[in-house]
Amino acid sequence: MTPVSSHSPHGQSSLRTVQVLGGGNAGSSAHVRSLASGLVARGVRVTVCAPVEADHLYDFTGAGAEHVHVPRSSDPGSVAALRAACADADLVHAHGLHASFRAVLALGGRRTPLVVTWHDRAYAEGARAHLVRLLERRVVKAASVVLGTTSALVDRARRTGARDARLAAVALPGTGRRAAERDETDRMRPKIRAELGSTGRPLLIAVGSLEPHRGYDVLLDASRAWLRLDPVPLVVIAGEGALRADLQRRIEDEGLPVRLIGRRDDVSELLAAADIALVPSSWESRSVLAQEALHARVPLVATDVGGMAELVGDAAELVPYGNAKALADAVVRLLGDPERQELLKERSGRQAATWPTEDETVAQVLSVYDELTQPRPMI
Fold it and tell me: Per-residue DSSP letters for 6-70?
């Protein structure tokens, strides 16, 4: 790969960038960790502004970046801390709506280029939805470039007033390591299935926070149809969130074949043990679970929302959001059709090979940085 220049606009020192994270969902935090590692390897100085717990989880300092603790947006000191961290930056790159808005406030009209990556859509209803639209408008008008992880997010940025919105190359970090570990995880499959209680029965896996947009209420509705199968599939949901008590109550009251196993850090191992992966959400951009499933060659049933079709192509079964019968029927058909399962596994490998690599992701970001920081020729 041809290296991209990492000099500042004045050519005196290496480019200094500040990466800004909010509370940090798993996808954007992992992306920033990967990005920081790639940028540092190419001679760029990187400061990651994020809550200290995010550095503990994602080890930005281990990637060669400087970490500056910036409290979550609810803390009144967060903008002041961010302003100090950005004081001598050549470029600021913010990830997510709330981090981007704080970056706009911290820069306070300075001419430092601001790149914004929208990894996902902000979820809000009622009066809060109006506030989100106002924040989006303020951010995109201040940003030099908005990168969207899906075409739908790019279109949304343009409709909101972005002067320059582009499709982002975003890799799933660690895919090379996952491929190398696949044989080991395959050997662990019987043990994991036994621990989950799915020996001798199909195992269906869903992963994600227990929040309304994840569609787990629809998944529980669908699971009632699977009670008539022999053997009855086990649905395992990994994640935590506000709906845990409500979901658990339904599972117990209705006798549903579903287990909530809490937040897990062994998703690749869970997928290796699964027969089908499920993504029943009302919205997804670049779903991490969908990517993990296709890399692991696990048949995927997902809702046809957001960027899902763009991401998976013909390598998954897509169903309408909110339609429990369609979700249930798709799983039943797939469980009963081994040939279809094998076809989806084959297509999964081909589709995953079309996604950007971590090197390609860093190269795109560097090209944007150079474009914004290199001096323009006099006309």
Answer: -B-TTSSSB-EEEEEESS--HHHHHHHHHHHHHHHHTT-EEEEEE-HHHHHHH-TGGGT-EEEE-
Q: Please give the Cα distance from 347 to 350 (Å, whole number).
A: 5
| Average pLDDT over every residue of 270-284 | 95
| Full strand arrangement of the beta sheet holding 258-262 | 258-262, 234-238, 203-207, 276-279, 300-303, 317-319
Q: Which residue has the tokens 């001598």?
A: 88
In the chain, count H helices and then E strands.
Answer: 15, 13
Cα–Cα distance for residue pair 372/345, rounded to 1 Å: 42
Using CA atoms, how far apart are residues 180 and 297, in angstroms rounded to an integer?
Answer: 14
- The DSSP code for 7 is B
H or E stretch including 223?
helix 216-225
Report the first-to-last Cα separation within the chain, whole angstroms.
32
pLDDT in tens, 329-348: 999 999 999 999 999 999 99
In this structure, is the dihedral angle defined by the CA atoms of residues 64, 69, 71 and 76, taken in order, positive or negative? negative
Residue 8 has pLDDT above 60, yes or no: no
d(CA 201, CA 335): 11
Q: What is the dihedral of CA 359, 360, 361, 367, to 10 degrees?
A: 110
pTM for the full predicted model = 0.86
pLDDT bucket at 72, cuts 50 / 70 / 90: confident
Q: Which domains does the chain have, with CATH numbers?
A: 16-171+357-373 (3.40.50.2000), 175-352 (3.40.50.2000)
Q: Tell me which DSSP letter residue 3 carries.
A: P
**CA dihedral sign of residues 193, 194, 196, 198:** positive
Structure tokens at 22: 């909010």
